[in-house]
Specification:
With 331 residues, the protein is α/β, with parallel strands linked by helices. It has a single domain, classed as NADP-dependent oxidoreductase domain (TIM Barrel), CATH 3.20.20.100. It has helices at residues 28-31, 37-45, 60-71, 104-118, 137-149, 163-175, 211-219, 241-245, 253-259, 262-278, 282-290, 306-314, 322-328; strands spanning 8-9, 18-19, 21-24, 50-52, 78-83, 87-90, 96-99, 123-128, 153-159, 183-185, 223-226, 297-301. Helix 5 links the parallel strand 8 (123-128) and strand 9 (153-159). It starts with 7 loop residues before the first strand and ends with a helix.
Length: 331
């Protein structure tokens, strides 16, 4: 297996190279606790050594833990999991309610459950799945540092945290000899979202409004592990801009609402055009675009198809000039 420098990078706090593509374990078979060994084997054998799961992904951790145990491959794997996700429920009035779960006890409880379910002694990358801005970042930094000092996790960070909150946690940690956050997992994609992807104000780096955040990540030693990099199938290659404009019956109204802006449809048209010229898929080109944006970027992408997974992996070697990348955004 050949090693491409485009396909691997370093995450502060980890000594080994990490594949730029994380295999996203929030896929239906794993969420149901089913065996995904063939798919996970294909990922690892082809060079994808990083895997992304979470406490709230159903039985995904259990499925992944069984695979780790039966293959005896823990030393070859970079394991990321997440805790501290809020509880979503509905009140008596029918409105949704969010119960925050960012406390020292709840973070520890989630981590211990993850360690037990995954059947490992240590997590390589541990992220808080959501933030609670009412809790001082300095307190959270201290709680997370304890987990590192105890040997339960190697590196820490936040998913759906603003860069300002990550900066605050880092500044406090560095000033007090604690382990700083070195990983952030927001949404990032060529398509801009018009609605909240998963509820609870998911954080995105996409769009002009988030230029300051992207600049911060370019200037600071924090790795970005993006989710929904293909915009929930917007760049699957299945859809055209005409499908959105005609409100094709196969498209859910909420999908059209989230991604059907004229700006996004222009980007979809241009991605399809340039992909045809390059002889690659729409998904490959859209994924490759993210890695042209100057951040220490990794992307968590799930798939139940070994072929599609390997196509995504090969996208990192796709040539893309700065001019072509700008053209895709409509510049």
């Amino acid at each position: 297996m050949s090693i491409s420098s485009n396909k691997y990078g370093y995450i502060p706090g980890l000594s080994r190279q990490v594949s730029r593509l994380f295999f996203g374990c929030a896929i239906r078979p794993m969420n149901l606790g089913q065996d995904a060994g063939e798919l996970l084997d294909a990922a690892l054998e082809n060079g994808i050594n990083a895997f992304d799961t979470a406490r709230v992904y159903g039985e995904s951790e259990a499925s992944f833990g069984r695979w780790l145990r039966t293959r005896s491959c823990r030393d070859r794997v970079i394991l990321l999991t997440k805790g501290g996700h809020p509880d979503f429920s509905r009140g008596e009035d029918g409105n949704s309610q969010i119960t925050r779960r960012i406390s020292r006890k709840e973070i520890r409880d989630d981590l211990e459950k993850s360690l037990l379910t995954l059947r490992v002694d240590e997590i390589d990358i541990y992220l808080l799945h959501r933030d609670d801005p009412s809790v001082p970042a300095e307190e959270i930094a201290g709680w997370m540092d304890e987990l590192v000092k105890e040997g339960k996790v190697r590196t820490i960070g936040g998913s759906n945290w603003t860069h300002q909150r990550i900066a605050a946690a880092r500044e406090y940690a560095l000033a007090h000899g604690l382990t700083p956050f070195t990983v952030s997992s927001p949404h990032f994609s060529l398509a801009e979202t018009q609605t909240d992807l998963y509820g609870d104000n998911c954080v995105t780096l996409t769009g002009d409004a988030n230029a300051e955040a992207r600049a911060w990540y370019r200037e600071n030693p924090v790795a970005v592990i993006s989710f929904a990099s293909l915009s929930q199938g917007f760049f699957s290659g299945r859809w055209t801009s005409d499908d959105f404009r005609s409100h094709d019956a196969r498209l859910k109204p909420e999908f059209i609402q989230a991604f059907g802006s004229e700006k996004n449809l222009l980007r979809l048209d241009r991605t399809r055009e340039l992909a045809a010229e390059k002889g690659c898929t729409v998904s490959q080109l859209a994924l490759r675009w993210g890695f042209s944006q100057g951040m220490n970027l990794f992307a968590a992408v799930g798939s139940t198809s070994p072929q599609r997974m390997l196509e995504n992996w090969q996208a990192l070697d796709l040539p893309l000039s700065a001019e072509e990348a700008d053209w895709l955004t409509g510049k």
